[in-house]
Specification:
This protein is mainly alpha-helical. The protein has a single domain, classed as Up-down Bundle (A middle domain of Talin 1). It has a two-stranded antiparallel sheet. The chain has a two-stranded antiparallel sheet with strand order 2-3. Strand 2 and strand 3 form a beta hairpin. The longest helix is centred in the last third of the chain and has 35 residues. It comes from Sphaerisporangium album. This is Ionic transporter y4hA. One of its GO terms (molecular function) is sodium:proton antiporter activity.
Length: about 400
Amino acid sequence: MSGPAPAPASIRSPLGLAAAAVPVLAVVVLAALWGRHLPAIAEIFIVALLTCSVLAAVHHAEVVAHRVGEPFGSLILAVAVTVIEVGLIISLMTSGGSSAASLARDTVFAAVMITCNGIVGLSLLLSALRDRTAQFNPEGTGAALATVITLATLGLVLPAFTTSTPGPEFSGPQLLFAAATSLALYGLFVFVQNVRHRDYFLPVHTPDHPPAPAGDGTATTSGTATTSGTATTSGTATGDGTVTDDEHAPIPSLKSTLTSLGLLLAALIGVVGLAKVESATIERAVAAAGLPQAVVGVVIALLVLLPETLAAGRNARRGRTQISLNLALGSAMASIGLTIPAIAVASIWLGGPLLLGLGATQIVLLALTAGVGILTVMPGRATLLQAAVHLCLCAAYLLLAANP
């Protein structure tokens, strides 16, 4: 998922050709290998193809989103990423039995910790190394962080304390309320970010980094990352006539959009199918390494968040801290706000318990993340120290996930 950068590549470009070939290859490989026992080299190839399929799916979702515009574009992207995440979770839950009952919780919590600490910390680090102080808009970033904290608490903390059912799980009415609240808050945030208070999520221009005048050879950008992580931008042409940002880049033709829509569907089928093919191997590898089941959730989150991480780092290196933070917090919000409702619906036919409540160690890490995040966001600027604190929290989470 990209930030304020060139619009999604044309299908005739090398990137476009690769993005077009990967979904087709994934579907062909899936059909050829379904139900077969695979050698180790084939397993490695499938894992690589699965990763490329995730990136290709996001690319084609961006093309469709660029055509339909906001706020519908952000919804398309969020739904595409959620399908990938939920597909991976369900594929592993159906083969993992009772040991996978907490996989949805582990994956969503991993996404929250990786985005709010890992991606945020990386963004602040790169921005602070570039400009000494990372500047961002506290109104928009604070609103996003508050929404993430609320969604995480309602969906992941409360189940550990409710008494209607034994264990860290919701009763039916409680799960329905959590799912409905998640969808409502996510939808409202999309509206606020893209329509009502769009200016709260635009990059901050300081005296040292004013917006460049049009036609001087430097692109002027003001961007808003969607809640799925992909930024929408407005920009100006460079001095050589090249348009650098999405809104001024050519809108994809109807033919290109329909082609990308078809390839997006193929990529999603490939991701979910290949995940099902690899599910048993992944679980055996985790068990053989002596790692807890929660590590599977971390692997899923890292795979799904790979595009956001790359995009956030790219934007931070360009001094667009606000866009990087929009990417991070928007991704966390989409992961909770859409994944939990989807898993709640899937649990109807999956059977078995749906364990959503966090353990004591995880709650402590979430509370610490919330407190540190609030202190980071409030001033509207951050230094290397805040970046290091967030990165340390992410490292602590990864260590405790593997060695609780």
